[in-house]
Amino acid sequence: MRGSLRLRLLAAGAASILLALALAGFGLVLLFERHVERRMALELEAHLRQLIDGLGRAPDGSLDLLRPPAEPRFLEPLSGLYWQIREEPPAEGGAVLRSRSLWDTILRLPPDLLRDGEVHQHSIPGPGGASLLAVERHVTLPASLGGGGVRAVAAVDRAELHAAGRAFALDLAPSLALLAAILIAAAWVQVTVGLRPLGLLRHRLAAVRAGREVRLGAAGFPDEVRPLAAELDHLLDAQGKALERARARAADLAHGLKTPLTILAADAAQLRERGEGELAEEIETVTEVMRRHVERELARARAAQAGGGAARQAAPAPVAQRVVDVLRRVPRGQDLAWDIDIPAELIVDADAQDLAEMLGNLAENAMKWARGRVRLAGRREAAGGAVLLSVEDDGPGIPETEAATALARGGRLDATKPGAGLGLAIVGDLAEAYGGSLGLGRSAELGGLRAEIRLPCRDGLSGSASAR
Q1: Can you tell me the distance from the alpha carbon of 387 to that of 378, in angstroms, rounded to the nearest whole number?
Q2: How far is residue 366's CA from residue 198's CA, in Å, rounded to a whole number?
Q3: Domain CATH for 355
Q4: Is the same domain home to 132 and 87?
């Protein structure tokens, strides 16, 4: 979750929703209990009125409840609903009137100054240590009842109030859970919609990196993301200019070295004519190494430009044909049979000049080692949509354990062969610049080396054709 902004936002939103609903549920239960408490207090006041209306005098003159309330719970011992009446001040020898539900308990009321008819509410202890909600009222008796005052109280066990709150909480929980699920789903939709511009930004950056687009642009981005896209476009512009300058410097360096290299080659030829063949060969070797290094740097400059420029495509079939036509003019190439089996409709995402550089290096390497045949082939990869271009020969090949050495810069498995050992490294650099790769193996058909380039391809293969 640490690496996912979506999950972090969703987790924060879900936690906030659950906390808010938990607090809301707790508050609703408290409000419900307060509402139930007010309703109970009103019912207790109604019982008080019935008690006071039913007061009278017994034949012996003592205070008595002539008409008790009709609520049956007052007759059930320890039912949780109680009443009590006592004279204020208590008459000498008089008894306190109380409901049967109190059994032998007398309610202890706090000292309180009540005006006539005023109702007060208290929390008092009850039978068995229960907490009671009590409503009391002071009433002055009329002269017909002997005058004086009475303090009447009706009480109910608060456990009933809490039980009602728990029942309400149980009924409320499923509704809150459903609401939480709906709100979390809404938060997920909100996060998904909110992060969608970042996904669009990622896709456009991938398109720029793959060469399908030149810049991100501002279309489709919200106001908050549009400045970021504009800054990235500015960065791409600066990178493009830097690559152009680097490529220009590499080209200037190459052109600057061409004349000295040409002079060195001419000097080597003159030395050979004078009979100094060993010195001429040494100069030619150094000249060849310098030339290949220049070619490598030019190839790397083109590779950098390919990674930051516009989309480029090339057809391998005509490029391979041009490479073979050039190599057939070389004395060594005239002695070989050249086969080209590349569908004419095959397209790769690469510059034609870079593709010619890659196929030319591989074909030239195969020409050095082949006994009599070189084959250039191409096909569309079944899975992944890439194009595989291979150059095979019927030479001795190389062991798999030495493939890494052959691909390394300056790697040469046989020093007796001409070259500087940079051709395969140049091909690998160019292939990687286009998102591809170079691999070496053994040719199943010819028995020699099989060099295979894997390059991306956006267009499918619509047919097949081959040139011989």
Answers
A1: 7
A2: 48
A3: 3.30.565.10
A4: yes
Q: Give the pTM.
A: 0.53
Mean pLDDT of the chain: 83
Distance CA 411, CA 406 (A): 5
In this structure, what token pair is assigned to residue 304?
A: 């950098």
Q: Are residues 383 and 460 in the same domain?
A: yes
pLDDT digits 0-9 by tens, 407-442: 654 444 444 444 434 567 778 888 888 888 898 889
The CATH number that applies at residue 122 is 3.30.450
143 located within any domain = yes
pLDDT tens sequence across 23-48: 999 999 999 999 999 999 999 999 99
Checking 74-80 for CB contacts under 8 A at 24+ apart, the result is 74/99, 74/100, 74/101, 75/99, 75/100, 75/101, 76/100, 76/101, 77/101, 77/103, 78/103, 78/127, 78/128, 80/130, 80/156, 80/157, 80/159, 80/160
Strand partners, 135: 121, 154
Of 439, 247, 441, 216, the closest CA to residue 351 belongs to 247
Q: Place 77 in a pLDDT band, splitting at 50, 70 and 90.
A: very high
Residues 20 and 156 in one domain: yes
Total number of domains constituting the chain: 3
The arithmetic mean of pLDDT across residues 47-73, rounded, is 86
- Report which of 52, 127, 133, 59 is spatially closest to residue 97, judged by C-alpha positions: 52
Does residue 171 lie in a domain region? no
pLDDT band at 147 (very low <50, low <70, confident <90, very high): confident
Chain centroid, CA 64 distance in Å:
79
pLDDT at 246 over 80: no
Say if 204 falls within a structural domain: no
- The answer to whether residue 116 sits within a structural domain is yes
The whole-number average pLDDT for the span 342-367 is 89
